[in-house]
Structure formats: C-alpha cells, structure tokens
Amino acid sequence: MSRIEWTSETWNPVTGCTRASEGCDNCYAVTMTRRLAAMG
Length: 40
Prior knowledge:
28% of the residues lie in helices and 0% in strands. It is mostly helical. The longest helix is centred in the last third of the chain and has 11 residues, at 28-38.
C-alpha cells in the first residue's frame, strides 16, 4: 500500500531483487544496492 497518489504499491530496491530478464542489465537499482551495501 502507498500514499503516493499515482501508484498503489512501492518497492524498496535496497532490499534487493532477483534478475528477471535482460532488462535488468540496465537497472538503476543494482548500482544503488551495491553502493549502499558498500557503505555498510
């Protein structure tokens, strides 16, 4: 559930994900997750 008016759901990329297709090759969340993990 989300209180953002233009969506009903949200997802936090910090928790990780599972590759689903070749589209994941350009995913911003992969880079963000690695950067945040390196910060501790």
